[in-house]
Here is the input.
Amino acid sequence: MNYIEKLRTSEDMVTPGMSACQGCCGELVLRRILQIAGKNTIVCVPPGCMSGAGVVGWDYQTGMKIPVHIPLLTNTASFLSGVSQMYQRKGRGDVNMIAVAGDGATADGGFQSLSGAAERNEKMLYVCYDNEGYMNTGFQRSSTTTKGSRTSTTPIGEAINGKQQPSKYVSLIMSMHALQYCATASPSHMQDMVAKIERGLSESKKGFAFIHVLAPCPTGWSFEPDQSIQIAKKAVASNMFPLWEKYNGNYYITVENKKPIPVKEFLQSMGKFKSLTDADIAQIQQEADTKYETLKKLASE
Ligand SMILES: Cc1ncc(C[n+]2csc(CCOP(=O)(O)OP(=O)(O)O)c2C)c(N)n1
Ligand code: SF4
Ligand SMILES: [Mg+2]
Here is the structure.
């Protein structure tokens, strides 16, 4: 069955009403992952926009059709390790163990628990939806926020001009663990994303699988909600967010960019980069080029 048919015919595991903003890619990613995973799934969603927007539920009603746990911001992977091990022990290794966590919960506060679970090769699929900031608490910068971004803790002003440090490349760091599967994905490339979710789920029955998904956020990044997918597309096309995977120890670039667009086209499509100078843009371009060259080298080994 092709991916469109698969998504058309599979049940949405999230309640129809959710209070995420219009055009939120985090919500789209959450829904698609769980549609592919189906009912035989336990999901762990730490504090952040996705749990806050409706997964937790309202009053005594859950926002999900499957069991959901809300761990701490810092312990998603260790929490799910315990759940996963208990299910293995009970002979229920068939149940999908999935974490859907923001970049703050993944690359910052929860990184120690994440790295530990990857090193132990715990059986789970851990997905990071990366909206490049602590969006649920008011758009603070995180370690994955792109350099030059305007956030509430890295404003544009006389003292600083947006975030000063380059982003932490959490997927590449994760790929250096001896894990089962590692990939990046974007909601603009749905076929690629669905294939990676399927592979990640099947590999998670043998060990740790990690997928880093770009999740443009109209509210925090300052763009119109109907532009989310276009922005995700430009991130991939400019090599700001290259699509690749690693399994059986080998790296593969899954969407090759023969003629990348300049990063300027991506940066200028939203308000958060509005104060960048030409020199800033040139530096971000260089960082994107270096990142892609590194990936190409890894993929050719
Ligand atoms: C240890 C700890 N510090 C702070 C918070 C408050 N908090 C709740 S959600 C959140 C933002 C999380 O950011 P991220 O994981 O990127 O998810 P997003 O909100 O962007 O979806 C923060 C800081 C918390 N729950 N726990
Ligand atoms: S703030 Fe951003 S990530 Fe959070 S619900 Fe709104 S669009 Fe989604
Ligand atoms: Mg975030």
Q: What stands out?
A: Residues 26, 47-50, 73-74, 102-105, 109, 131, 133-137, 142 surround thiamine diphosphate (ligand 1) (CB under 6 Å).
